[in-house]
């Protein structure tokens, strides 16, 4: 174990040589800013003041040449070679609600949700505690770097973990997962993420998932509708797909006892042929456009969660800024 000292504070934390600076800090309860955990967003940058680190992924898009010349590193991609001193803007917002742990896990089953979105279940050796809406990292043998996947169950503590993953053509992690034999082992590290259920927020809930962003929205719906006294009157679920065959999620929501009284589901397709008769309740367009049409000015009185491809997330952020929604009511994960 090496010691990492945070410059200008009395804080320090231990980091194993095979851990990353970011994840070791979060395990110690430190509010280290981050988002994706996979080298893409750049939110976990810090400056190395003293000591030696190594990069797990030199080409990670989250770090520019200018960053390198300024001795900046990505917390999620750097491992210590000895004790180190780093400069970091700690933020209470990032203090983990549940410190992440690493555990071996065995692949136990899968089921088809759509033609290219499947649910994968794992049995972990140690129980994982997480809040609805959070994600974990899966380390696959033979795949460079971990992959982030959101849990689809209601938050809680247990050894069984379900993920809902969309197959990416040519993607190394998803191709490994979709062809994985039952019984194979992976390592799971989690939980991570800030887009978890705010249980006390006294506002109607809007959940928006695009494509592979189904799992965290299902988890949030499950968590919200399991609350003893839900502090909201309505929960709106909007799922954005490309084509009719990609539409999903309503069957899982219909299983929740309170969904029938509080829930409203809308599906949106962006790429359906103009002459196709769409399933009942399905709209055409991009998901953020339908969010605007259905909720417009009411958005500023909602607790809003969304997850999906970065383009969708950017369009949602722009819409919510335009609608003057307080950012304290907005929680999201962009899938890189
Ligand atoms: C917070 C978060 C939550 C997510 N949740 C889900 C979900 O619930 N369901 C879902 O289907 N998808 C989810 N994703 C997307 C998922 O993590 C993968 O990006 C996606 O499945 C494609 O993976 P792939 O390996 O098939 O594709 P690839 O193109 O092989 O890999 C893309 C991913 O791998 C990382 N990567 C690539 N090369 C390296 C390397 N050499 N070293 C380290 N990292 C590398 C990239 O940063 C990128 O994240 C989530 C992403 C994030 C950031
Ligand atoms: S959290 Fe490290 S680059 Fe996104």
Written overview of the protein:
- With 336 residues, the protein is α/β, with parallel strands linked by helices.
- It folds into three domains: 93 residues, Beta-grasp domain (Ubiquitin-like (UB roll)); 92 residues, Beta Barrel (Elongation Factor Tu (Ef-tu), domain 3); 132 residues, Rossmann fold (3-Layer(aba) Sandwich).
- The protein has eight helices and 19 strands.
- The strands form four sheets. A six-stranded antiparallel beta sheet has the order 11-10-13-8-9-12.
- Helix 8 links the parallel strand 18 and strand 19.
- The two termini are 31 Å apart.
- The model has no long low-confidence stretch (mean pLDDT 97).
- The protein binds flavin-adenine dinucleotide and FE2/S2 (inorganic) cluster (FES).
- The site of FE2/S2 (inorganic) cluster (FES) has 14 residues, from loops.
Total number of helical segments? 8
Average of pLDDT: 97
Heteromolecules bound: flavin-adenine dinucleotide, FE2/S2 (inorganic) cluster
Overall shape: it is globular
- In what order do the strands lie side by side in the largest sheet? 11-10-13-8-9-12
Q: Kindly provide the radius of gyration, computed on alpha-carbon positions and rounded to a whole number of angstroms.
A: 20 Å
Estimate the strand proportion. 35-45%
Summarize the structure.
This protein has helices at residues 21-27, 65-69, 172-178, 214-225, 250-254, 259-262, 287-295, 310-322; strands spanning 2-6, 12-15, 45-50, 53-55, 72-74, 78-80, 84-87, 101-112, 117-130, 135-139, 147-150, 156-166, 185-192, 204-210, 235-241, 263-269, 282-284, 302-309, 330-335.
């Amino acid at each position: 174990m090496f010691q990492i000292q945070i410059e200008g504070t009395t804080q320090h934390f231990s980091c194993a040589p095979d851990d990353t600076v970011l994840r070791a800090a979060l395990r110690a309860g430190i509010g280290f800013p981050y988002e994706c955990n996979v080298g893409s967003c750049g939110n976990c940058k810090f400056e190395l003041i003293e000591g030696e680190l190594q990069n797990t992924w030199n080409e990670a898009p989250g770090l520019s040449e200018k960053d390198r010349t300024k001795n900046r590193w990505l917390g999620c991609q750097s491992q210590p070679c000895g004790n180190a001193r780093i400069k970091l803007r700690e933020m209470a917002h990032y203090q983990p609600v549940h410190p992440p742990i690493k555990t071996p896990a065995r692949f136990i089953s899968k089921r088809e949700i759509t033609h290219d979105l499947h649910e994968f279940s794992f049995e972990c050796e140690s129980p994982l505690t997480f809040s609805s809406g959070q994600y974990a990292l899966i380390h696959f043998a033979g795949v460079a770097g971990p992959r982030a996947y959101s849990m689809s169950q209601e938050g809680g503590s247990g050894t069984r973990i379900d993920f809902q993953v969309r197959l990416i053509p040519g993607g190394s992690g998803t191709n490994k997962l979709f062809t994985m034999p039952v019984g194979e082992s992976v390592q799971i590290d989690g939980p991570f993420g800030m887009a978890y259920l705010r249980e006390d927020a006294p506002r109607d809930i809007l959940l928006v998932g695009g494509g592979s962003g189904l799992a965290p929205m299902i988890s949030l719906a499950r968590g919200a509708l399991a609350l003893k006294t839900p502090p909201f009157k309505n929960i709106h679920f909007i799922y954005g797909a490309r084509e009719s065959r990609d539409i999903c999620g309503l069957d899982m929501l219909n299983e929740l006892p309170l969904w029938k009284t509080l829930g409203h589901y809308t599906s949106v397709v962006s790429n359906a042929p103009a002459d196709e008769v769409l399933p009942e309740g399905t709209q055409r367009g991009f998901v953020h456009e339908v969010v605007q049409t259905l909720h417009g000015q009411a958005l500023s009185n909602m607790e809003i969660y969304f997850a999906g491809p970065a383009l969708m997330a950017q369009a949602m952020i722009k819409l919510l800024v335009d609608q003057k929604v307080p950012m304290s009511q907005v929680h999201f994960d962009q899938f890189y």
